[in-house]
Amino acid sequence: MLPPRTKQNRLEEVVGAILGGQQQIVSYAGASQYQDAEGIRTGASSCGLAALNCARVLFRTYEDTKVVSNFSPAGHTHRLLNGVLCQQTTEEITSICSSWPSDKHLEVDELLKLPIFKQSFENANVQYALTDYANLLSVLRDMRDAKGIPVAAILTRSPEIIVCVKIPINDNSDVFAVFDSHPRPAHPDGAAFIVNTSMESTATYLNNLLAIDPKILADPTMRWQAQLFGQFSSHIVLPNSSPLSPTGLEDILMESTTTTLRLQAELDNSRRHNEELTTENDRLKLQVAQLELDDEDTTILDHESVRTAYQSRHANGPPPWQASTSGSSISGPPVALARDSEPPSHSKHDIVSDLSEKLINQLQVQYQEEDRALAAERAALSAHETPTFQCQICFEDMRIDYLAQMDECKHSFCRDCLRSHVTSIISQRRYPILCPVCMADKNAPEPTQIGDTVLSTIGLTTENTELLRSLQIAPYSIALHCRKCKQTMFVDRKDHQESSTITCPLRGCNYVWCKNCERQIEIGGPQHSCDGSSELRHLMQERGWKACPGNFLSLNSAQARP
Prior knowledge:
This protein is of the alpha+beta class and 562 residues long. Helix content is 48%, strand content 15%. The chain has helices at 7-19, 47-67, 73-85, 87-94, 108-111, 115-118, 133-145, 199-210, 214-218, 223-229, 246-314, 320-323, 334-340, 345-384, 415-427, 436-440, 452-455, 462-473, 493-498, 533-543; strands spanning 24-27, 121-130, 151-157, 160-168, 174-180, 192-196, 231-239, 388-390, 397-399, 403-405, 412-414, 477-481, 488-492, 501-503, 512-514, 546-547, 554-555.
C-alpha cells in the first residue's frame, strides 16, 4: 500500500524495483470494483468492465507516453510506468464500475460489443484451456510474441475476470502488469496492479490466483461442475490500429444514443404491458369475489327454501288418519296424537331428497377443492424433483446433471460412459468419433458424429484433448520437423503436396530443405536438384570447367590444354 504522504517517492522506488526484476504490488485504499475512491458503492459484478477499461486506459497511456520524445530511454520507461501505476490511473479504471450497479454477471464477449471498447480494441483470438501453469504461460508467450506493441489478455475463470497487460519498455524487455479489481489478502484495501518483468513469475502468480483446489477436481460428486470451474478463457486484444478521430467519437455517441432510445422504448413497452396485466388482474379478482358472493347467496336461498317447505307441510293440519278417529272412544285430546305422530311418508321423502341433494352438492364441492389442492401439491413436488434419464451404455438411471446427449440422433449417455468410449476411440487414433448406439445399429442410415460441444462437457484429460485436436486437423494438415530449430509444426496438406521445397514457418528460423531428398537448400545458391546435376553445372560454369567428350568428365582449363 502506498502511504499518501510519500506516494511519489514510494512510486519511484517501486518502479526501480520492478525494473530490477522484483515483483511489486501497487494498491490504493478504497478504489475497487465494489466502491470508488469517494466510498460510493458500485456494482458487485463489474470486474469485466474494470478489466476491459484497464486495457483501454493502459493502451492510451502507452500511446500518450510515446508521443513525448524529449526523454532518454530510461526516462521514457520511468515516465511510462509512473503513468500506469499512479493513483489517478487506478481511479480512472475503477470509475466505470459505478455505471453498472446490478449484481448480474457481464460476459466479455458482450462487453466487447460496447461502442467504447469496440472502437478501442482489435480482437486477436480467444483461447479456452484448463487452469494450470503451462496453459497460462502459453498465453503470456503469445502476448510476448507481439513485439513493440502493448497486448492485453482478459482472463475469465468463472465467476471472476482479471486482465494481464504486456507493456514493452524497450526492444528486448517487457513488463507484465496484472490488474485485479477484487480486494485480496495481499491487497485487502482495494484493487491492485501486480507488476513483474518475468513471464514465469507472472504465470506463477496467475496460477496461484485462478487455480482451484485439486480436491474439488477429484470429488466424484462434482465431476463436471469442477471441470467447468477449472477452465479459463483468454480474450487477447490489441490496440486499434486506426486512432480515434472526431468522426469516430460521433459514431460512438450516435450508437450510444440509438441504443439508449431503443432500451427506453423497450422499458416503456414493459411498463405498459405491466399496467395492462395489473388492470386485468384486478378485474379478475373482482369477478372471483362476485362469484363467491353469488355462491353464498345461492346457498342461503337453498337453506331457506328447505326450511320453508318443511314448515308449510306441518302447518296444513292433522293428517287424514288422525281426523277419522275424532268420533271414537279413545280418550285424550287429538292434538296430542297429532304432535306425537310422524308426518306423512311422502312429505318426509321430499324433505330427505332435498337435503340429500344439498349434501351431495356440498360433498362434490369439497372433493373438487381437495382434488385441486392435491394437484397443486403434486405439481410443486414435481417442480422440485430432479429429472432423470437412462444411460444407453450402462442402462443406469442418472440425474439430468450427468446427461450428455447427441445433437442429431438424441441418444443419451452419462458423462462417465461417454468419456470412456471417446477415450478408447482416441487411443486407437480413430476419427471422427461416432455415437456408440448408432455404430451398433445396422439399420441406422448415417451414424451421428459426436460434436465439439458434447466433447467439451465430458471432462477429457489435457493429453486426450490435444490428441483429439491433432486427429481433427490430420485430414487437412501434415506434421513437419525442422532440423535447425528442432521444432514440429503442422502445415496445410494441399500446400505441402504442391510445393517441392519446404521453408520452416517459425519466426527467426527460415531453414529451407527439399521435400524429396530432405537436403538443405542454400538461399541464393544454385537451383537445387536431388542428384546434384544442377549444382555441378553451376560449379562448372563458375570455375570454367569443360566436359570431356568421351566420358563426360569435367576438366578444368589447365587439364584441357593439349
